[in-house]
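Ticket #312: bound-state structure for NAP.
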Amino acid sequence: MSQPVLIAAELKGLLEPDQLEGLEVTWLSADETVPKGEWVAIVPLLSRWVGGTELKHLPKLRIIANCAVGYDNVDVVAAEMRKVFVTNTPDVLTDATADLTWALILACARRLAEAIALVRSGRWTGWHPEQLLGMELRGRTLGLFGAGRIGQAVGRRAVPFGLRIIYAARTPKPEFQRDTGAVRMEWPGLLAESDILSLHAPSTPETKGIVNSETLGRMKPGAILVNTARGDLVREEALANALEDGQLGAAGLDVYADEPAIHPRLRAAPRAVLLPHIGSATHDTRRKMAAIALANVQAVLKGKAPLTPVFR
Ligand code: NAP
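RESOLUTION: The complex was predicted; output attached.
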């Protein structure tokens, strides 16, 4: 007998028929709230909150298979209390997100947004020795806040650019240190020493708002901030101030506190490179993310352990 499951409608084009075998799918579009009913699994996008109310609506639920590695959109404690599995999609998106982080680092360091705008405006008057001068990377310091899968992948890519690497994480990473020469420090050291500070920690009560007016004030003048983690790690008003008064050299952002809204002063800042949350957006990665989410659903519904649980 097929099992009733709710799947984000936006995933339809990424899934193969065999991944849906044995499932009776209700496609849930972004503007619909979670309905009440007998569904045993839900596959949400990161933009859907799944908390107490949603769990109450789905009394037969056995798994929330989030289609993202971050799971700050799920009330994990409420799910655990109801013995509902929560899974995510780690590893498959690491390279894509690390590559995108590097796109932002390079775009900020070499002022690509301003350069592209100049060319498009038709006002470029030709080569000038002091035009759009940026930051030379060799010999500078890259700070990683969070050195898990993505943070380390960003760090490994920094070696050929000649960057010194420092990082903050809850636990030391000896292999990463050995391979890249990275040095572990506490958050204050990272703020003081980074020429480029890149955020790779999840959104948690400890990390929310960790980049604020006080911590921005402790960064090197002219430093670059890059955020491909979660928007609420950064206080956007404070970031806009730091960009406007020149304390910060540039900011490269893929994520925002209130997506899809973007703070108007960030949108207006010439030194902000703003992307629409496309960290994992490659054909291969998005298919793999959807496949893992469905493989988790299939495993749990067959009474097996989930492949990538966020708690055990
Ligand atoms: P991960 O492997 O779990 O790494 C997270 C890192 O953050 C770990 O090194 C962890 O330390 C560290 N950390 C957690 N809390 C911390 C704290 N309070 N202080 C210092 N470090 C802390 O996760 P990942 O796969 O690299 O993904 C990281 C985040 O990227 C995800 O949570 C997600 O929000 C975001 N993301 C965004 C996109 C996008 O589209 N822009 C795509 C993928 C992921 P320990 O290693 O010591 O535990």
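RESOLUTION NOTES: The pocket of NAP is lined by residues 69-70, 90, 93, 97, 146-151, 168-171, 200-202, 204, 206-207, 228-230, 254-255, 277, 279-280 (CB under 6 Å).
TICKET STATUS: resolved
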